[in-house]
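FAQ

Q: What does a record look like?
A: Structure on top, sequence underneath. For example:
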């Protein structure tokens, strides 16, 4: 009994040490990726030149294909009818093998106190179809220069995180197997209960790690696109008999900003660029003219 208790204690200590070492060993994707490439390069040194090229290419391809990147996008559009656009986008997501995460239709108050519809919708589509989906979304507007208010695409490389989680998962699964073997050989109730408690804890950790890995991989396979939809009437400038005073005001402010920017830029050039050159060239000339003038005056005084 004492001997088995000691074995159990030693096993638990080794599991704790293995867990800590796994976190330090695979903290970043870059380190693990370089290690794989370096190992393949060392193996290739003893091979002929043709085999070396093949091994190096395989290493690069392996690193590229195993990278796990989560790509998401945000876009804001101006459309005629936000409600109809939500229906179109929802069907677009389904047709591409994705789904609608959430959608929200609401109303905004325009400058002339009218209630106008607006909407937010988030969809997920296969990552390889992200660019295609964004192109189709932008094709929904009448004038891309005016009706696409904003667009952004972000990418997050989670290869290092997934590598770390998978390493810890393998260690825990090995620990689970060893604990099961110890439980099969346990002869006392005390040993069985001690091993059972450790198994319960380890299985809980395994489920957590499996869930995190699944989340990362599914997020990398399906890109999220958040779309904000505004009605054309909500962003249209105020017009009185064809006259748009808000547009004129906007242009006047822009002209004022451009004029001030020109003056500030000119002042900076004068202080930083022109003034030193004038000082370097003009000061010697001034000193020469001054000395020459003094000599002439001295000569006149002598005469």
């Amino acid at each position: 009994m004492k001997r088995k208790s000691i074995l159990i204690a030693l096993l638990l200590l080794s599991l704790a040490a293995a867990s800590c070492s796994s976190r330090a060993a695979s903290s970043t994707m870059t380190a693990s990726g370089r290690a794989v490439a370096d190992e393949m390069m060392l193996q290739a040194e003893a091979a002929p030149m043709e085999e070396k090229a093949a091994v190096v290419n395989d290493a690069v391809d392996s690193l590229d294909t195993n990278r796990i990147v989560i790509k998401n996008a945000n876009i804001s559009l101006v459309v005629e009818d936000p409600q109809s656009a939500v229906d179109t986008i929802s069907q677009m997501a389904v047709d591409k093998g994705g789904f609608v995460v959430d959608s929200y239709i609401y109303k905004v108050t325009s400058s002339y106190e009218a209630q106008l519809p607006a909407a937010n919708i988030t969809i997920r589509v296969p990552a390889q179809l992200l660019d295609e989906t964004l192109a189709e979304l932008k094709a929904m507007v009448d004038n891309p220069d005016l009706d696409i208010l904003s667009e952004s695409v972000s990418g997050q490389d989670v290869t290092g995180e997934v590598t770390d989680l998978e390493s810890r998962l393998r260690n825990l699964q090995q620990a689970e197997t060893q604990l099961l073997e110890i439980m099969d050989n346990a002869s006392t109730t005390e040993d069985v209960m001690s091993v059972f408690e450790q198994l319960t804890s380890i299985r809980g950790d395994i489920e957590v790690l499996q869930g995190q890995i699944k989340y990362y991989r599914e997020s990398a396979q399906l890109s999220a696109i958040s779309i904000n939809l505004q009605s054309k009437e909500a962003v249209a400038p105020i017009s009185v008999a064809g006259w748009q005073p808000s547009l004129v005001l906007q242009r006047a402010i822009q002209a004022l900003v451009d004029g001030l920017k020109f003056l500030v830029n000119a002042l900076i050039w004068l202080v930083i660029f022109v003034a030193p050159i004038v000082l370097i060239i003009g000061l010697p000339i001034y000193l020469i003219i001054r000395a020459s003038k003094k000599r002439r005056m001295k000569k006149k005084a002598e005469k």
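Q: Is there anything notable about this one?
A: The radius of gyration is 36 Å.
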